[in-house]
Amino acid sequence: MPLDILIVGAGVCGPALATLLLRAAAGHRITVVERCDALRTGGQQIDLRAQGIPVMRKLGLLDAVREVCVHERGVAFVDKRGSAKFQVDVNDSGKGGQGLTSEYEIMRGDLVRVLYEASLRASEAAAKKRGGGGGGGGVTYEFGVSVESIAQNENGDGGVDVKLSNGRQQHFDLVVGADGQGSRTRRQAWGDAAGRAAFHTLHSYGAYFTIPRDDAHDSDVAVVHHLSGRRMIVFRSNNRPDTQCYLFCNDGAQAATLRDATGATGKKSVAERKQIWREFFEDSDAWCRERVFAGLEGTEDFYAHEAGQVKMGSWSKGRVVLLGDAGYCPSPISGCGTTASLVGAYVLAGELARHQDDVGAALAGYDRVLRPFIDEVQALMPGAPTIGAPQTDWGIWFLHSLGKFVTTLKIDKLALSLMPEGKGGIPLPEYPELKLAE
Ligand SMILES: Cc1cc2nc3c(=O)[nH]c(=O)nc-3n(C[C@H](O)[C@H](O)[C@H](O)COP(=O)(O)OP(=O)(O)OC[C@H]3O[C@@H](n4cnc5c(N)ncnc54)[C@H](O)[C@@H]3O)c2cc1C
Q1: Domains in the chain, please, with CATH?
Q2: Which residues form the pocket of ligand 1, taking CB atoms under 6 Å from any ligand atom?
Q3: What is the DSSP secondary structure assignment for residue 425, as one 8-state letter?
Q4: pLDDT in tens, 186-244
């Protein structure tokens, strides 16, 4: 300590890690490179759950999150006329587990901004602690920059020699890949084939976009409409001036076309991808059909994605370590992607603080301490995701009937009240070395 650290990716967990590291040791010199030209604030509603909530509390950021939370009262499952068959409400009692809607629903861009600004404040505070900012410590963001190559310096001090896309070459004690589920850092450090093979598709494909709000239909209850063929249309509006529309298809038999539609193959333009999504829902006779198509055509923030999980035998190689979706994406189906990335940042910073200048011991500790939690988060409900997206109209009828039975008898509420607040009941480890609020 202090260390020269490169964080690749200014998404959710990159800035969170920078904040945690600087709170523990004011002298760290942290560079965050983000391939986009500015902070990437796109994305729709994500949720903070389970052990992610105490991490934000420890960072002193839970009130800031609460201020920008969207207020979703629950999720209604509707038929093709838009009439609710049953509704699952949020558990806002502060006790027990979280249901489909978390107590902390937040737009991804708002969470990214909260964490980015916190890292800048932590950097200023660290400069004051160092007495005027000498020694080059703190965090520096470089936008529009990515990593060209990584070479482990195994014969020297065990650090990493990095070549950046702006031509600069620099030596770091540690490189942290926080660059999302398709992580290039993973492919650079583990090899292209191994890096790609770590991603396991769930054959669940989604398109996310913003459409104009329609006060006649949109409220603080999200709406889910199932179509046969394992398809879904979702609207979420809450207290926001616009409405989020999601289209999902969980049909593995259509994987080749759907991968084109997400952009994963890089073969189709945005207009072509939108057209594929339209064709997938063309046969719908739902009340919202024309609204979805008009919204899809007019939207400027179309984002599509193939859901899957990243599984790695080890999250570090030499002095390169993976964080968040890059190392252990649990998929949006788990509802815990953001939470896992924040808990990961907390444990990595905690282990580095605990082991001081022994980076190898810290990385081993990160794997050992975090793995049971990630195993728990990645263990999806048996049959997921297809179990929640029936193939036939009969299957949809059965899902609606079961949902009505469970919610009428309040079995869902009872189940949540009996569940532990933290995923799997696994306690968040304590790191007094991080010098956090609690
Ligand atoms: C634009 C966008 C929209 C999203 N929308 C949703 C959504 O609607 N719902 C949902 O559940 N999840 C969404 N996610 C995923 C969600 O943010 C993550 O699952 C979760 O929060 C974990 O965060 P993370 O920090 O590990 O990864 P991310 O939040 O994915 O952040 C990764 C960051 O790394 C950057 N990056 C990628 N490659 C490189 C590179 N080679 N060099 C430098 N930087 C790089 C990316 O631009 C991004 O800023 C979205 C992610 C992105 C990037």
Answers
A1: 4-42+108-198+308-380 (3.50.50.60)
A2: 8-14, 33-36, 40, 42-44, 46, 108, 146, 178-180, 184, 208, 303, 324-325, 332, 337-338, 341
A3: G
A4: 999 999 999 999 999 999 999 999 999 999 889 999 999 999 999 999 999 988 899 99
